[in-house]
Design brief:
The protein is an alpha/beta fold. Helices cover 26% and strands 15% of the residues. The protein is built from 20 helices and 18 strands. The strands form three sheets. Strands 1, 2, 3, 4, 5, 6, 7, 8, 9 and 10 form a ten-stranded antiparallel β-sheet that branches. Strands 15-12-11-16-17-18 form a six-stranded parallel β-sheet, sandwiched between helices. Strands 13-14 form a two-stranded antiparallel sheet. Strand 11, helix 15 and strand 12 form a beta-alpha-beta unit. Helix 3 packs across helix 13. The structure holds CIS-heme D hydroxychlorin gamma-spirolactone 17R, 18S (HDE). CIS-heme D hydroxychlorin gamma-spirolactone 17R, 18S (HDE) binds next to strand 2, strand 3, strand 4 and helix 9.
Length: 709
């Protein structure tokens, strides 16, 4: 077997350092120029003559136990799986770098922020939370956004989410919230969805989850792709400078591509058409050279601000609105390399919140404190022993030296005489020594108080920021939130759970509660849940919390699905391709058959997709370039009609040439739908550049506004 063991993305087969190049008896080398072996061998390096047949006694006789190649191959196969992550099992990773804009040495001595232009290598893993490893990418769920910085002073893991708050205030409740969200234990379903009794039973009994529920019922929980979502460190952390001065910090990742989400009706269809939609999107973007970028922003504050702020900065169910404390951009994250082996990198990467470097420290957020225990513990179970930090994706890229030794799969072993300290051995034989000056020092925070199990009073307001989130959304986003609550609660079989949730929502907003109650067909409005602290109605709206309010104003990085038939207007296609390229958008051809079509000028247009496998939900906008005959043939195909009706229902921009009219009529639209709304753009009347310009709004939301529910 060739050893592709570096797991570090170098796309080559490597030899282990102490492996000599031998010539086989007879003189041939069997080695490629990169050192990889050409012949199939066993783990022991024995060349294999036949990998098709087990060793048998007699042509039709029993298999023999002495078949070491078979036994080794099957045994290894039997052991291929490691436990999937308890949460965040489904994920996808990529390599890249973080580039710092300017020295932040007045605030922190952390290496990645030390110099202008400094590039720190990173590995990022995005994930869903509730679903198992093989679940669909488009679940309504929080997304993980975990970043490992390989700094020159060790690895720093910023293990964040795409939502800035969490369900619970104390790590003690984590197993409960996760159990409630995942499959119900008796039946083992539903998979990757919170739309079931157990989740809402728990949520309706946990008022502290109110703020988070607003976020997960919003479009944030169904991002268009990893590239179009924000990331947050969630907790308040602490930065420490050379002089030992501490500054509180909240971390924000802002996608340069802009924020974008899909509709729920789209999400369920995408999961069917392409359950790998998000990972494929990231893979395609990176391999096509359209490297996704995020800007890292910091909210920095001191004790005075923390004392003044209306909520406890240690409470992870609260944000600090950007309008109150601006986010200061400090650098950019660029993902420019896909993994070369999914298992070695994405599966084996072990993020740990306790991995911090000098200059970065924790606070007493009770969730963060609990996490600092959990991550190491979970890696020990998942990766099978204490040496997981030696795996290439987890190992620091800076020098490291310690006296830890042995254990399962020890690959990096001490070579010094001493394996303990203090020791009196001199020089290299004595091994590494402490560094009192540059070594990691915890911030000397004063701690005092009685030892008790008690939730601080300052954590008692559960609804005010939930309400603030609600009033910060546009009308369309509010509609989506109300619809998601209605959808999810309608899946609850026990009426009292639905009623209890509506009772809680009354503390957030009466209109929201009433809309959901109506959607659920509740005959009477329940009394509002008694809040631990009366919700405030005076928090102002925070426009930064809306996705639509802050649209990117660009269609870059988005994909147009072009449904095409024989005889399609070749000129229109060429112009569309040029306009899309100018916007850095991509065009994907969908045809009646994957072999492609002959365009009006006789040229062959190759297709990427066949219509049955490429519903319009896979695209940000669609164009129908059909000849009248082609459109007639398409009209007979349900997938082609759905392509149009779904694009309309999902408020997509739809470009077309006049030949498409038969298909439009078959889909229940006028032959020329441009009178319906400005989301329909006739490419006979407007140049493709105008179509692309309209696409910059991403969706034609007025179409949804016009639908009265
Ligand atoms: Fe995690 N979380 N978590 N979590 N978490 C894990 O570690 C845990 C929390 C987050 O791509 C586990 O390696 C506790 C908040 C991400 O590999 C586990 C608590 C946030 C990932 C664990 C939380 C996160 C994890 C499971 C409550 C956002 C995936 C597998 C106190 C700030 C990282 C693993 C990856 C993974 C524990 C809450 C983010 C069990 C106890 C809040 C992105 O250790």
């Amino acid at each position: 077997m060739t050893a592709n063991g570096n797991g570090d993305g170098d796309r080559q087969h490597v030899r282990y350092a102490d492996q000599q190049v031998f010539r086989a008896p007879g003189g041939e080398t069997h080695q490629r120029s990169d050192g990889s072996e050409t012949r199939l061998t066993t783990q022991q390096g024995v060349p294999v003559s036949d990998d098709q047949n087990t060793l048998r006694a007699g042509d039709r006789g029993p298999s023999l136990l002495e078949d070491f190649h078979f036994r080794e191959k099957i045994t290894h196969f039997d052991h291929e799986r490691i436990p999937e992550r308890v949460v965040h099992a489904r994920g996808f990773g990529a390599h890249g770098y973080f580039e710092n804009y300017a020295p932040l040495t007045d605030i922190t001595r952390a290496d990645p922020f030390s110099e202008a232009g400094l590039r720190t290598p990173v590995f990022v893993r995005f994930s869903t939370v509730a679903g198992n490893k093989g679940s669909g990418d488009l679940a309504r769920d929080v997304r993980g956004f975990a970043t490992k910085f390989y700094t020159r002073e060790g690895n720093w893991d910023l293990v964040g989410n795409n939502i800035p708050v969490f369900f619970i205030q104390d790590a003690m409740k984590f197993p409960d919230v996760v159990h409630a969200a995942k499959q119900e234990p008796d039946r083992g379903f539903p998979q990757a969805q919170t739309a079931h009794d157990n989740f809402w039973d728990f949520a309706s009994l946990m008022p502290e989850s109110a703020h988070m529920l607003m976020w997960i019922m919003s479009d944030r929980a169904i991002p268009r792709s990893f590239r179009f979502m924000e990331g947050f460190g969630v907790h308040t952390f602490r930065l420490v400078n050379e002089a030992g001065r501490g500054t509180y910090v909240k971390f924000h990742w802002k996608p340069r591509q802009g924020l974008q989400s899909v509709l729920w009706n789209e999400a369920v269809k995408i999961n069917g058409a392409d359950p790998d939609f998000h990972r494929r999107d990231l893979w395609d973007a990176i391999t096509q050279g359209a490297y996704p970028e995020w800007e890292l922003g910091l909210q920095l504050f001191d004790d005075d601000f923390a004392d003044r702020f209306e909520f406890d900065v240690l409470d992870p169910t609260k944000i600090i609105p950007e309008e109150v404390l601006p986010v200061r951009p400090v650098g950019r994250l660029v993902l420019d390399r896909v993994v070369s082996n999914f298992f070695a990198e994405t599966e084996q990467v072990a993020f740990c919140t306790q991995n911090v470097v000098p200059g970065i420290d924790f606070t007493n957020d009770p969730l963060l404190q609990g996490r600092n225990f959990s991550y190491l513990d979970t890696q020990l179970k998942r990766l099978g022993g204490p040496n997981f930090a030696q795996l290439p994706v987890n190992a620091p890229k800076c020098p490291f030296a310690h006296f830890q030794q042995d254990g399962h799969m020890a690959m990096v072993n001490p070579v010094t005489r001493a394996n303990y300290e203090p020791n009196s051995w001199q020089g290299a034989e004595g091994g590494p020594r402490e560094d009192p000056d540059r070594g990691y020092r915890s911030y000397p925070e004063e701690v005092a108080g009685p030892k008790r199990r008690l939730r601080a009073d300052s954590f008692a307001d559960h609804y005010s920021q939930a309400r603030q989130f609600w009033i910060s959304q546009t009308d369309i986003e509010r509609r989506h939130i109300a619809e998601s609550f209605t959808f999810e609660l309608s899946k609850c079989e026990r009426a009292e759970i639905r009623i209890r949730m509506v009772a809680g929502l009354r503390n957030v907003d009466e209109e929201l509660a009433a809309t959901v109650a109506e959607g659920l067909g509740l005959l009477e409005m329940p009394e509002a849940t008694e809040p631990a602290r009366a919700p405030r109605a005076d928090l102002p709206s925070s426009p930064a919390l809306s996705i639509i309010e802050r649209g990117p104003g660009s269609f870059a990085g988005r994909k147009i699905g072009v449904l095409i038939t024989n005889g399609a207007d070749a000129e229109a296609l060429a112009a569309l391709r040029a306009a899309a390229a100018a916007e850095q958008a991509t065009v994907e051809i969908v045809a009646p058959a994957v072999g492609g079509v002959d365009a009006s000028d006789g040229t062959r247009v190759r297709a990427k997709q066949q219509i049955d496998g490429a519903p319009s939900v896979l695209y940000d906008a669609v164009v129908i370039l059909a000849s009248p005959g082609g459109a007639r043939a398409l009209s007979a195909r349900p997938a082609a009609r759905d392509f149009v009706t779904d694009a309309v229902a999902h408020c997509k921009f739809i470009g077309y040439t006049s030949g498409a009219s038969v298909l439009f009529e078959a889909a229940g639209l006028p032959a020329d739908p441009s009178d319906l709304d400005e989301g329909f753009v006739s490419l006979n009347d407007y140049p493709p550049a105008e179509f692309i310009a309209r696409c910059r709004q991403l969706r034609h939301w007025d179409r949804q506004r016009a639908v009265v529910v």
